[in-house]
Specification:
The protein is of the alpha+beta class and 150 residues long. It is built from 8 helices and 5 strands.
Length: 150
Amino acid sequence: MAGFTGFDRVLRRYGGIATRRELLAAGWTETEFWFALRYRNLDRIRQGWYAASDLPTDARAAWRAGGPLACVSALRHYGLLPDEEGAESVVGGTLHICLPAGGRVGRDAPEGLVVHWSTADRYSGTRQAVSPEVALRQARACARQAGLTR
């Protein structure tokens, strides 16, 4: 492939986040991959995972922690929950991610990270966030657990 714009095309196909294997399978050579990393045309967000330069900050933070946004973090990502003090009080403003059974939390996970463990939920949406329906169900469960609802 000529130039680095091909990385963005492949990354977009995967929702802005792709594995090294997926990028190489798309036709990139190890040398092109190295140059793209060296000249910051490609962003490594965790071991084996790479992001488009315009990946939203919240999704980037979630993947550094281990997986896609979940619960209230996903609802905020979709614009379904305001990023206001009232919304923050539901979960204390922490990052929520979803990991499949057997998944691993990343080394760069922030303090107070909330992990929703569910293989089905993990694959319900995009690589950036679980589906809005799943996020809403997760948020209800978190609110009940925190004693905010019955």
